[in-house]
Structure formats: C-alpha cells, structure tokens
Write a structure and sequence with these properties.
This protein is an alpha+beta fold and 531 residues long. The chain contains 17 helices and 23 strands. The protein has a seven-stranded mixed beta sheet with strand order 17-18-16-15-21-22-23. The protein has a six-stranded mixed beta sheet with strand order 3-2-1-5-14-13. A hairpin with a 4-residue loop joins strand 10 and strand 11. Helix 10 packs across helix 15, helix 13 crosses helix 14 and helix 13 packs across helix 17. It is globular. The protein starts with 24 loop residues before the first strand and ends in a 13-residue tail after the last helix.
C-alpha cells in the first residue's frame, strides 16, 4: 500500500514530502594482518556498507612473517571500490585509516618496496631484542618510548636489518609501516601518525618526536622516517590514480588515523577510565584509555597514543585464536578445515581446570607481560587419564590465563579496572565468552554490530572532519547487547591455578632456552625412512 503524505495542521499538503538526503558517511579502512576491511558509518553510528579482502601471511623461513605490500594495497583499493559503489561517492565525507601495528617496510627514494612487509609476528630479531632488553638502557628505552623491547617492534627489526642485511639497508631511503605505504600511494604523502609511531619503539612519548637514542640504536636518522603527524591529521585528498581506482573525487579528505589496537577501544566504546577493551582474534590484547602517558616501572605494559590528550595502556599476547587453530590441526585433523565448533563442543565436556592440566599457549612466543621471545608452548600435568578434550580445554584456559596476567600487570601500574568490553572471533563461542569471564573474575560485556578498529577509525575521522564533537560519543553509540558474569566456583578454580600458570614460565625458561639453541638441528619433518 502506498504511503500517504503527512497532513499539516492547515490541511492537505500540496505534494508529497521529499525524502531527506541520506546522511554522509565516513569510511573506516582497517588494514589487518590477514585481511583489510572497509566500513561506512554515519555520525549516528549506523553501519551503511562494508567490504573485506584477504591476503596471505607468508612464513618463508622459521621465525619470518612477511607480506607483499602491493597485495595489501590492492585489497584496500578493492574494499574502497566496493563500499563506494554501494553508498555512492557523493555520500562519502572522508576516509580514515587503521592498521596493524609494528610493521616495517624499506622503501626506495621513489617509494618502491625494497623489502617485504615485516609484520608484528616476525620473530627474527629475537637475539637483538634480548640483547637490548638485557642492556643497561633496555628498561629506560621502554619507559621513554612506551614500546616494550621485543622482536615485534620496528626498533629491534631495524637493528636486525642493520646487522644482517647491511647492503640492503644502505639502499633504503625510508623505513615505514603498511599504513604509511598505503597513504603514500593514495595521497602522495609519506606521514606516520603518533599512534602507529608510538608502537615502533622509536618515538619519545613525552616529546611526540623521534627518540635520538632509539634512532642511534636502529641506525637511522629522522630523514629516513616518515613525517610525524597527529592521528587527526587531514591529508588534502587523493592522487588522480587513487581517485580513479576508488571511484572517489580527488578532493576527498583523508584522515591519517591510528593503530588498530587503540582504535579498537573506540570501536567498543571503551573510552572512559576503568573500561578495558579485550580483543581475541588471531592474537589477543587488553587496553584501557587514559588521559596522560602511563609508564610501567617494571616494563610490563605498553603505552600508545590515540588522540591528543588520550593514550592507551595495556598488553598484547601473541596467542589467541591461533591456539584453537593449532589444536584443530594437531589434535583433530580428521575434523577438516574448520573444526573450531566441534573442538569447542569437546572442551565443554571438561570442567574448569581441565583435570589438573595446564597449557602454556606460547606457540608463537609471547609478548605481555614479560615481552620475551624465549618461551615455547607446553602442557604440564599430563596424565594417562587426560584425553583430547582436556588438551583443548587447557589450551583455551591458557589463552585466558595469559590475558589475566596482562590484567594483573595493568592493575599493578595503578590503573583501575571496573568493566571489560570484549570483541573478536572468540565472541561467537558461548564457552569462550564464559571462560574469559571466569578466568578474569569480572563481568564481560559484548557489543554487537560494530566492527572494532574499522568503526574506531571512522569515529576518529568524524572527529577530525567535525562531524562529531569528540570520540567520546563512542561510549553512547556502542550498545552492550550481552553481559557474561563469572561463575563463582569456576572463577575460584582459575584463580587458584593462576600462580601455577605464572610460575611455570620462569621454571621452564632454562628448558626453553636450551630448546631454542637445539632447534636448528632438530627438523620438524620425518626423514625419508619414516614416511
């Protein structure tokens, strides 16, 4: 039935009311480790369109984790084209960017990649990181830059390149990350924002400028790094080629944006003191927004910039959903390529504590709170009575226990924790939701309908473009759809196991160190006579 035009107090209107023009949107582009997502949001928080494109993470040698930056650029353009086609170019008020932190890429003078993109997961700088950490200035470096001295950081990667690829280093005109490369191709400007820069180990938190001592260690000068800008910096527009490739006008404003971790806090509405954002995807993290840089005297948490006057403090763990993926491959290969649901069903059969079985889930080394690449994964307490379901349950509990150690470290710096908001692929599992609440011993709230860092990037873009007064609106725009409360009996079991879990790391360091030294002589694949 046709909609009747509204009646005015004076009688029938002369004609039908015109539909209002659709609200403008800001497109948040989130450049992740394995995929790029573009999402278009209105200032009211309405998701209008979205697109994603995947790309591989290459591991050509043990400890290496690399990507082709041109493939990632192609994924960004593909996602933007798709979203622009759906919403219409006139509706796009601007673009704003998020990216995985800690990446490193060597560029020639004309902007061509001279190296693969070295990602956060790359561990080749382990020896350099351990040496810097053990040195007299290691902790001071962490305190000045806010970035732990760890193989993930571009600082330690640069030391590795300087020591192991001397001739290549001499050819590199500028070192940058993936977001800087994408913005260079889209806008013709080589800039890095304070958020991404604060995760490099090269920027002084207090001065918001490159740290002279860190640059000396890395063997670079400011001239070989991008220009530093605030996260709200607006670039004048797109190059002619980028405009043609995306379907947008060349004058479209481009907001530089920030790192994906800090922006995930915006995407969850975790912008107020005491509200912790928790994400578990391939890896995991806990973060809280503060109004000034917070330095951990023990060096156990990071501090990264978000916007002027806002900082994010927390810790990231290497091993999140990747642990469940490993369990499928190693413990249940017969379940096929997507065994997660069946594995979770197995784990549900086992009570809290996995029958006294503990897993240290350090399959990819580890980051917070100890920030060392030495540890490896381990099962401790294994008996003949344990079955596959116990091993899966212990793996999930290990991931949550590691996040609980990060939470303890955040509290040790004096940060109050009143509420946890969570997101990530794990949130689809009722078991993992409950397990996280039980292990943390806190209510965990889940917000549906917002795309984490992508929404955070869009919100930051809205502030930069004047469409919202402040990113504080995130607290109102993001609605909590579900709250999971800890079960007292299970929470008590996990609390009792936490000292055991924490102590195993230190107890096993000698074994981890010896295995690391032996690893090159211990092949993974069976010999010809054993196949």
């Amino acid at each position: 039935m046709a909609r009747r035009p509204p009646m005015s107090p004076a009688g029938p209107q002369a004609g039908p009311a015109e539909d209002p023009a659709p609200a403008p949107v800001v497109v948040g582009v989130d450049i992740g480790t394995t995929a790029t997502k573009a999402v278009a949001f209105t200032a009211a928080g309405e998701l209008v369109a979205g697109a994603s494109a995947e790309y591989p993470l290459e591991e050509p040698r043990p400890g290496h984790a690399e990507q082709d930056p041109e493939l990632i650029l192609g994924a960004v353009l593909e996602c933007l084209r798709s979203v622009v086609r759906e919403v219409g170019a006139p509706r796009v008020a601007g673009l704003s960017f998020s990216a995985a932190m800690h990446s490193l890429l060597g560029l020639s003078a004309d902007g061509r990649p001279l190296t693969p993109l070295v990602t956060w997961a790359d561990a080749r700088a382990g020896e350099q990181a351990e040496r810097l950490r053990a040195g007299a200035g290691g902790l001071a470096l962490h305190r000045r830059t806010g970035t732990p001295v760890h193989p993930m950081s571009p600082l330690t990667k640069l030391v590795w390149f300087r020591e192991e690829r001397t001739q290549l280093c001499a050819r590199v005109a500028c070192w940058a990350g993936i977001k800087e490369f994408v913005l260079l191709r889209l806008c013709g400007e080589l800039v890095t924002d304070h958020s991404v820069a604060s995760a490099t180990g090269l920027m002084n938190l207090q001065e918001l400028d490159w740290d002279a001592e860190a640059l000396e260690l890395a063997g670079v000068t400011p001239a070989r790094l991008p220009r530093l800008v605030p996260t709200t910096e607006v670039l004048p527009g797109l190059t002619a080629g980028a405009a043609h490739a995306t379907g947008l006008p060349a004058a479209t404003p481009v907001v530089v944006g920030a790192g994906d971790g800090p922006l995930a806090n915006l995407g969850l509405g975790a912008v107020r003191p005491g509200v912790v954002a928790c994400s578990i995807g391939t890896s995991g993290a806990l973060r809280v927004v503060v109004d000034r840089p917070v330095v951990d005297p023990r060096g156990q948490v990071f501090c990264y910039a978000l916007t002027p006057g806002r900082w994010v403090v927390g810790g990231a763990v290497n091993n999140g959903g990747v642990v469940l993926g490993w369990a499928g491959d190693a413990l249940a290969p017969e379940l096929g390529d997507e065994p997660e649901e069946e594995l979770l069903t197995l784990a549900e059969r086992v009570p809290a504590g996995a029958g006294g079985l503990v897993m240290l889930p350090y399959l990819l080394g580890e980051r917070a709170p100890r920030w060392t690449s030495v540890p490896r994964g381990a099962y401790v307490g294994l008996t003949r009575a344990h079955r596959r379901e116990h091993l899966v349950r212990a793996a999930l509990e290990g991931v949550c226990q590691q996040l609980a150690l990060v939470l303890d470290s955040m509290r040790a710096t004096g940060l109050a924790v009143e509420q946890v908001r969570a997101t990530g692929g794990f949130a689809r599992s009722p078991l993992w939701r409950q397990l996280l609440a039980d292990v943390l011993g806190l209510d965990v709230r889940f917000a549906e309908g917002h795309d984490g860092s992508g929404f955070g990037a869009a919100l930051l873009g809205m502030q930069a473009l004047g469409l919202v007064a402040s990113v504080d609106v995130a607290a109102e725009l993001v609605q909590v759809d579900a709250t999971v409360r800890p079960r007292p009996a299970d929470a008590a079991v996990h609390a009792a196991l936490r000292p055991v879990f924490e102590g195993l790391h230190d107890a096993l360091v000698p074994a981890f160190t010896a295995l690391r030294q032996l690893a090159p002589s211990l092949p993974l694949e069976p010999g010809p006579g054993l196949r």
